[in-house]
Write a structure and sequence with these properties.
173 residues, alpha+beta, 26% helix, 7-stranded antiparallel beta sheet
């Protein structure tokens, strides 16, 4: 009897599947009308012009601004911007790596994964790579292509500050 119970538990465990990760657009398919996204999001938007809905959210423990962008035929892209205000620029690299790990869990290894040096002045000082990003000397870039579209994540300098952005784009028609 005990052997039958063990076999039944093993069969049950083998039949159980891991749940799929949450969809990239927070349950919204490409082309979803703006009104449906607005009605379904659990919070009020921070900004709501005609072609966008903007929310403050958290993903992988990182405070982000989520922006849904709409075209005439509905949702066409989502943009995620890191809102953290780190005093140590190296922490933005930690955020980048944490989100990249989350994306690898969902989509596998990126098609492109680069550290692009524009000025190699700090290239031999890994502990200063955060400063290199802030100075515009270094860009972190990762890109995935999935059946749902293109995913781009970059960590770079933008107008004298660190910019960490994650973009999901619908497939080209």
């Amino acid at each position: 009897m005990r052997l039958i119970a063990i076999i039944a538990l093993l069969l049950l465990a083998a039949c159980t599947t891991t749940p799929e990760p949450p969809p990239e657009t927070r349950t919204f398919a490409w082309g979803t009308p703006r009104s449906e996204v607005l009605a379904a999001e659990p919070h009020e938007p921070v900004i709501a012009p005609a072609d966008r809905l903007v929310y403050h959210i958290e993903r992988a423990g990182i405070p982000l601004t989520l922006s849904y962008r709409f075209a005439a035929d509905g949702l066409e892209a989502t943009h995620w911007f890191n809102r953290a205000a780190h005093e140590d620029n190296a922490r933005y690299i930690d955020d980048f790596e944490r989100l990249k790990s989350d994306l690898i869990d969902r989509h596998g290894m990126p098609r492109l994964d680069r550290m692009i040096w524009r000025n190699r002045m700090l290239a031999d000082e890994p502990e200063r790579y955060g400063d290199a990003v802030a100075a515009g000397h270094l860009v972190y870039y990762s890109e995935w292509r999935t059946e749902r579209g293109k995913i781009i994540m970059a960590l770079r300098n933008d107008r004298l500050q660190v910019a960490h952005e994650l973009v999901y784009k619908r497939p080209e028609k």
